[in-house]
Specification:
- The chain contains 12 helices and 12 strands.
- The chain is α/β, with parallel strands linked by helices and about 325 residues long.
- The strands form 4 sheets. Strands 3-2-6-7-1-8 form a 6-stranded parallel sheet. Strands 4-5 form a two-stranded parallel ribbon.
- The radius of gyration is 23 Å and the shape is globular.
Length: about 325
């Protein structure tokens, strides 16, 4: 366990050191804004180890600069059963190790990729189910011909925040999985339990600098909201009729946000410029990072959804205003 007095910078350096100089598995966590994504990008760019970056969902994989777990390891849709065989009369789609080997084997190129990697980085690990991680374990053991070594000897770097999105498990799936796992979370993986992991938590929030606001956010996160927190938030209440111009509205559903954006864009008198995305290869529409046709006007408020990879001109979440547009 790292020293609890270490700063986030110290802990990030220790995590990088562990990843680069040992074969120990690592779980790197921390609340929003503590630098998990920055750490991932920095380590991926600097580590001497051959590595892969994967994530449970398409959007998470896109944000991490990797691919989905299912596509990388050619996992079938369904539920992996770590036992010797699938329980009879199980509802839904279940598969086991035998199915992976005989019915959906990896081709030689995929096997070679898995044989050469030393480090597997899994982002947004809060969404990763224990059975999926055990299916990955079986793929790695088989491809690397190390059937008695967890993950075939590959080191894992697991990054995520367990206060964020949990794994999705249907009731009929859990009826079967609960016989093998105490929880559906990644840390209940049978392979990970054998391998163990180092736990490192980044605790300094870089995204906010207001200590009072950070305290309120932490209390809300931990379900420990105080009356003082509520009073402080209520002091900032503004009636909808008095909203300042270009106020950002947080919504619970994308269609609400889209409606507000369309209304705001339509209110601008400037000419509309439409830009159509160039799409190459197999790129499913459900993981497009933005609309295929993007409409913009001069004066429109925008938000960047990616960090600047060539400098520090912008970052994910930064707001800006469009001042000039060209047809290209």
């Amino acid at each position: 366990m790292p020293n609890l007095t270490d700063t986030s910078e110290d802990l990030a350096l220790k995590a990088a050191h562990f990843a680069n100089s040992t074969s120990r598995h690592i779980f790197l966590t921390g609340k929003a804004g503590t630098g998990k994504t920055t750490f991932l990008q920095t380590l991926a760019a600097s580590t001497h180890k051959s590595h892969l970056i994967v994530a449970p969902t398409g959007i998470a994989a896109l944000n991490a600069g990797g691919v989905t777990i299912h596509s990388q390891f050619l996992l079938p849709l369904g539920t992996f059963v770590p036992g010797a065989s699938i329980p009879p009369d199980s509802p839904g789609r279940f598969y086991d190790t035998k199915f992976l080997v005989t019915r959906q084997p990896l081709n030689s190129i995929r096997k070679q990729v898995l044989r050469e990697i030393e480090l597997l980085i899994i982002d947004e690990v809060s969404m990763l189910r224990a059975d999926v991680l055990d299916a990955v374990d079986q793929r790695l053991r088989s491809a690397r011909r190390q059937m008695n070594v967890p993950f075939g000897g590959v080191q894992l770097l697991l990054i995520g925040d367990l206060f964020q999105l949990p794994p999705i498990v249907k009731d009929y799936e859990w009826t079967v999985l609960s016989k093998y796992y105490p929880t559906p979370h990644f840390f209940s993986s049978l392979a990970l339990k054998k391998g163990g992991f180092v736990y490192i938590e980044l605790d300094k929030v870089f995204r906010q600098s207001d200590d009072t606001f950070i305290t309120i956010l932490n209390n809300l996160r931990n379900n420990m909201c105080t009356q003082a927190d509520i009073d402080a938030l209520n002091k900032r209440y503004v009636d909808a009729k008095e909203y300042p111009e270009n106020t950002v509205t947080l919504t619970t559903h994308n269609n609400q946000a889209n409606a507000i954006n369309r209304e705001s864009l339509a209110a601008l008198e400037a000419k509309t410029h439409t830009y159509t995305a160039n799409i190459s290869g197999d790129f499913p529409e459900n993981i497009y990072p933005l609309p295929e046709k993007l409409e913009l006007k001069e004066g429109a408020q925008i938000m960047f959804i990616k960090n600047d990879t060539n400098g520090n001109r912008f970052y994910n979440g930064k707001l800006a205003k469009v001042i000039a547009l060209k047809d290209d």
